[in-house]
Amino acid sequence: MTDKPSILIVGAGAIGSFYGAILKRAGCSVSTVLRSEYEAVKENGIRISSPLGDLSYRPDQVYRDGDSPQSPPDYLILCVKVLPGTDRAQLVRPWMGPNTRLVLIENGLDIERELAEAYPDNPLISCLAFIAASRTEPGVVEHKAYGKLVMGSYPEGISEDCRTLSDLFIEGGIKVDLTEAVVGERWRKCLWNTPFNPLSVIANGADTRTILDTEGGEALIRAMIREVMAVAEAEGYPMEESLIEQNIEGTRKMPPYKNSMALDYLNDRPIERDAVLGNVVALAERHGIAVPHLNTVLVTLKMRASLEGRA
Amino acid sequence: MTDKPSILIVGAGAIGSFYGAILKRAGCSVSTVLRSEYEAVKENGIRISSPLGDLSYRPDQVYRDGDSPQSPPDYLILCVKVLPGTDRAQLVRPWMGPNTRLVLIENGLDIERELAEAYPDNPLISCLAFIAASRTEPGVVEHKAYGKLVMGSYPEGISEDCRTLSDLFIEGGIKVDLTEAVVGERWRKCLWNTPFNPLSVIANGADTRTILDTEGGEALIRAMIREVMAVAEAEGYPMEESLIEQNIEGTRKMPPYKNSMALDYLNDRPIERDAVLGNVVALAERHGIAVPHLNTVLVTLKMRASLEGRA
């Protein structure tokens, strides 16, 4: 037996499976709640190849959406995609106890609010994952590189719960940056994601090189970053002007790269449009800030979605 | 024999074939210069079904790109698509005589300039076609509706040549509106085409209903029309504000409609990106007018093109 906290991963895709494995290595009990991959994981566990070694593990319990838990976990880590059709507050409800800390390892901006409102008495920890990993078949994940988490309490600060979880992740073998202002870190990450991800989708899966090297492409990206910065500042997170240059130069130094939203699009999977872009445009409207470049991309994506009969 | 002027149609797709038929009905000699459809038309002539009746005809001469003409025509009517890879001035060179009037029945803005510069001594007549017609197989055209031409001398005025040609078209059975300011008419048509056509392409072939009914869609269209109007005004063609409403309401009254650029895109044919959009953005830059919505759409289309290895 262990006195380490119990962990429940809700949504064990590539991200959830990986961070579950890290906490398993740290000695926690790790259970999962799955939908489509339930049978495969129940049968074979989760198999993960990684530069860190073989991270494969059998979850302590494998639950299916709709099951009743034996007891609520100490930490519930939510790793599902943030999609309009997914009611995340509802999704975690059966598993939340009065002392359960709710942890988000998810992309996007303004994605904490609905959970903070639904569970005002549970501590909420918000994380950004910097990782290259993909699910290759049910229950099988390829971890390619990185893995760092940026973590903080929502809406701000670093609680003791947060430090405990961070220590466990570090013990399991990854880096964690604790931050007093996790929302500001989300804005910082979205300086890149909000322009590049949706633009790559409406450009039919263009990689970073194509985006930047097309005539007018770099200027468009700069204009979009500037719009994100204006909204971030209005929200209380002013950013240094130099971040524009850093994002462009950093991207130019990488090999041509298709981001995860482009890959989702090319593989007919739903994209996190609102988490990454729609919420920024909504905040801009609330502040009366014009974001014409972002808005053009957003509305185009909505037109495509209605064409495909999606939300 | 006829004392009617001789006509040469360069680029006898749906548009060129149709207007050639009209002039044939008016008693002109009508020849064609063709590329891919040469064999079919040489063999079978041009077959056109139409609400006006059967407009099929055999061109007096069927030339192939690169042939030498017997004698230069009185009117050379250019109906090719306006694409970056097509040097239109070069294309018509073998057929231009000292007295040949050059007539454009082509879409877009600022598309006359390169021809006016190449043939400063030949009268240039610029036309906009309001027609629904499509080529169904080589040498076969289905004329569905409309057919009106708006016609004027370039850059302005209505020359005698213009009136002569207009009378012939009317004699052949279509309506012609002569205009002293054909460039202004192009701007007027582009109030619709410049927003709707390229937007339908980046929205993957969305029809007018989808574009207007998507959340934010109508507002986006309005913003794009406004940008086109600002450039038109800087170019000396101020437009009434009420045209925005008219364009929106007129579109809502039509059945859902896929424009020709959307159809070209969906059928893997090149699109007239620069004629309809790129030239407007270039003029905006020259005047220092911000057109962020138009520019986002333009750059996205360029990214797609470089992804596909096109210009």
From TrEMBL, chains A, B:
The keyword Oxidoreductase applies. One of its GO terms (molecular function) is 2-dehydropantoate 2-reductase activity. Residues 7-155 form the Ketopantoate reductase N-terminal domain. The keyword Isomerase does not apply. Gene3D superfamilies: N-(1-d-carboxylethyl)-l-norvaline Dehydrogenase, domain 2, NAD(P)-binding Rossmann-like Domain. Its EC number is 1.1.1.169. SUPFAM superfamilies: 6-phosphogluconate dehydrogenase C-terminal domain-like, NAD(P)-binding Rossmann-fold domains. It comes from the Bacteria. One of its GO terms (cellular component) is cytoplasm. InterPro entries: 6-PGluconate_DH-like_C_sf (IPR008927), 6PGD_dom2 (IPR013328), ApbA (IPR003710), KPA_reductase (IPR013752), KPR-Related (IPR051402), KPR_N (IPR013332), NAD(P)-bd_dom_sf (IPR036291). It is an enzyme of class 1 (oxidoreductase). Coiled coil: none annotated. Residues 183-303 form the Ketopantoate reductase C-terminal domain. GO terms for biological process: pantothenate biosynthetic process. It catalyses: (R)-pantoate + NADP(+) = 2-dehydropantoate + NADPH + H(+). Keywords: NADP, Oxidoreductase, Pantothenate biosynthesis. Pathway: Cofactor biosynthesis; (R)-pantothenate biosynthesis; (R)-pantoate from 3-methyl-2-oxobutanoate: step 2/2. Catalyzes the NADPH-dependent reduction of ketopantoate into pantoic acid. Belongs to the ketopantoate reductase family. NCBIfam families: apbA_panE. This is 2-dehydropantoate 2-reductase. It comes from Marinobacter similis.
